[in-house]
C-alpha cells in the first residue's frame, strides 16, 4: 500500500489530535465560570451596572477568539458594548417588521423611536448618556449618586438621600458607612 513512500515518512507522520466538541465546550464554560467568579474586572463591570448575561457573553467571546482573560477593564467594557451593538444590529436586521415594532423595542430599551430608527446601534453619545443615567441617585432621581455604601460598595445614592436610608436600595445590606466620592 505504501510501496512508493519512504519508511521514515510513514513512521513519523501522525494525524492531528481529535478534539471532542463537547469536551472543548465544557473546558470553555469552565474557564468562563472561573473568570466570572474570580475576576476583579468582571466585578467592576457588575458594579457599573452591566447585566451579568452581557458580561458573560463578552467573556466567552474573548476566550473563544483570544483564548485568554481580558487584560484591562476598558477592553472588557468595549467588548460588552460591542456585543450590545451587534445584538441591536441583529434585532434591526431580523425583527424590524414595522415602525410600531421598532417603537416598542425602543420604548423597552429606553430610547426614543427616532434614535432607534436613525442608526443600527447606539452612538457614543447615547452610550455616555446611558452611563450617566445609571449614575443618578436611585432615591431622588434628580442628582448624581456620589455616595458609596459600605460594606456592599454600591454607588446608588446622593449625599442628601444617604441620611434617610439604613439599607442599600440594591442589595438591602445594612449600611455601616457612607463614603463621599468625587469625579475627576
From TrEMBL:
Keywords: Metal-binding, Zinc, Zinc-finger. The keyword Zinc applies. GO terms for cellular component: cytoplasm; nucleus. The keyword Zinc applies. It comes from the Eukaryota. SUPFAM superfamilies: RING/U-box. GO terms for biological process: negative regulation of apoptotic process; positive regulation of protein ubiquitination; regulation of cell cycle. InterPro entries: IAP, Znf_RING, Znf_RING/FYVE/PHD. GO terms for molecular function: cysteine-type endopeptidase inhibitor activity involved in apoptotic process; ubiquitin protein ligase activity; zinc ion binding. Residues 137-172 form the RING-type domain. Pfam families: zf-C3HC4_3 (PF13920). PANTHER family: DEATH-ASSOCIATED INHIBITOR OF APOPTOSIS 2, INHIBITOR OF APOPTOSIS. This is RING-type domain-containing protein.
Amino acid at each position: 500500500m505504501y510501496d512508493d513512500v519512504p519508511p521514515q515518512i510513514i513512521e513519523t507522520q501522525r494525524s492531528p489530535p481529535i478534539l471532542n466538541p463537547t469536551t472543548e465546550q465544557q473546558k470553555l464554560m469552565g474557564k468562563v465560570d472561573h473568570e466570572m467568579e474570580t475576576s476583579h474586572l468582571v466585578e467592576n463591570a457588575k458594579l457599573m451596572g452591566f447585566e451579568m448575561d452581557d458580561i458573560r457573553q463578552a467573556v466567552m467571546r474573548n476566550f473563544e477568539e483570544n483564548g485568554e482573560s481580558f487584560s484591562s477593564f476598558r477592553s472588557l467594557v468595549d467588548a460588552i458594548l460591542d456585543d450590545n451593538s451587534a445584538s441591536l444590529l441583529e434585532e434591526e436586521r431580523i425583527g424590524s417588521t414595522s415602525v410600531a415594532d421598532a417603537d416598542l423595542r425602543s420604548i423597552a430599551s429606553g430610547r426614543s423611536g427616532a434614535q432607534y430608527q436613525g442608526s443600527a446601534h447606539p452612538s457614543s453619545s447615547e452610550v455616555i448618556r446611558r452611563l450617566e443615567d445609571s449614575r443618578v441617585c436611585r432615591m431622588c432621581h434628580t442628582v448624581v449618586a456620589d455616595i458609596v455604601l459600605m460594606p456592599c460598595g454600591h454607588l446608588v445614592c446622593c449625599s442628601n438621600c444617604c441620611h434617610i436610608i439604613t439599607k442599600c436600595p440594591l442589595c438591602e445590606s445594612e449600611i455601616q458607612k457612607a463614603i463621599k466620592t468625587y469625579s475627576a
